[in-house]
Model the fold of this input.
Amino acid sequence: MELIEQYFNVYLASLIMWGFLMAFLYNVVKKSSSPGSDPTVMWIALSIFLSYLLSDPLFNQGFGYDLLDSTSAYLVWSVFDLVTILVIMLIARGKTVQKSPVKLYLCMGLMINISLFIGMYIDLNFTKYIGPWWFWYFYSVIVNISDITMIIALLCNKDFLGLVSCYNYLKGLNKHQALVSKT
Done:
């Protein structure tokens, strides 16, 4: 059963990567159908697809490196996601989250993934607990939900969960608090 679960997770990761590829291709077609439109979402989709491709376990096995044989895979994935956030910020540096909600959705999703990857790395390397427990199941579900949410954000570039509205609300609270503290 454990072997089936391991391979299911690998193929699910490949399906997620395929979703990022389709989101990139969708944005390429969308950009080519209206040549004067903003290419930001297309470049963001390409960057996240390449990040997931280069860190994919099946892709790495093709080069003779089995990423899943070590617990350092979680650190590798964290670094890839951190670099991807930096690339997204570079690509979308002139765009607000109101204009490109995908920027906020992807950065939030990648930060959630980084937190969970680091949590798994700490769990496996420092606590030395080898039996499955609630955090492993939580990790599996949340990482996949986060990835699917990022794919949807790349496809629609809309504030479909209200994160931009929450961001604007919190930003407004901070401005209000700054004004109150000055008086």
About this structure: The chain has seven helices and no strands. The longest helix spans residues 2-33. The chain has a mean pLDDT of 88. The helical segments are 2-33, 40-54, 57-61, 73-91, 101-125, 134-156, 163-182.
